[in-house]
Structures are given as structure tokens and as C-alpha cells.
Specification:
The chain is of the alpha+beta class and about 160 residues long. It has a single domain, classed as Glutaredoxin (3-Layer(aba) Sandwich). It has a four-stranded mixed beta sheet with strand order 2-1-7-8, sandwiched between helices. Strands 3-4 form a two-stranded antiparallel ribbon. About 25% of the residues are buried.
Length: about 160
Amino acid sequence: MIKTLLFFFILSTGLLFSQKSNTLLSFSFEEAYKLQEKEKKPLVVFFHTKWCKYCFAMKKSTFMDKKVIDLLNQNFYFITFDAESTDTLKIKDKTFKNKSGIHEIVEILASRDNTISYPTTVILSANNTIDEQIDSFISATEIHEILTTYITKSHSN
């Protein structure tokens, strides 16, 4: 009986740890900037809406991939943000709000030629400059390649 209980305890502990490592850590803008004060890492920001089917597909496929999750958790601070959010953000003494249905932070980080597409994934350097802006669906394989190349380039500089 004790051996059986011990076996189930070890099995359940292993399952808990494996589930935890398969979880993508996601932060708010405020949390990510605070974390950057302690450890400088680039940010990956995923802008989406509730009605966007490609955004939903990325959430369910791209950001559920174990290799992508490991890469993001180890090398970046990941932020997922609803572009139509009505939340007020306070980042480094600046306030950002929703203006006419689209959040100001989205207009600043995700617009290209005064147009915003969903989904948009943005990579911000550890110094918070826009390094990459991808305004389309990205598969797990594609984002893994983009992030791996980004890490390699940033380590060589």
C-alpha cells in the first residue's frame, strides 16, 4: 500500500512539474518593465482582439508549442494584450488609454503606415526599441525561427 501511494505521489509531482514547464509566462506591460529593472530581457508583445480568428489560432497553436514556450520563458518577457482593452496603462511616468476603440499603446507599437493589423507581434529590445513588427499569423515553426535568429543576433552584438 505504501509503495502504491509513493508511486502515485511521485507520478503526480512529475505531472505538476511538467505542466508548469509547459505554461507560457505572460506579464502585463507594468510587470514586464519592473522585471526589466532587475534583469534586462527583450519583450515580445502579442497584440490581439477578441473577434480575430487568426489571433485565436495563434493563442491555441503557436503559443501552446513547447519549443516556443521554452524559448519565450527563458529569453523574453512575453506580453499578450487586447488591442481594444479599456485598461489604463502607466509605464515609466506615462499614461496610455483606449482612444476611440483602439488602445494608445497599440497605435504606438503595432501600427505600420498608420494601419494596424491583427494579430501583430512586436519584439522590443531590452532598451525598449522596436526591433521586429510582424503583422500576420505566425506559426510555431516561424516564430521559433524568428526568435532564435533574434537571440543569436543580439548575443553577437
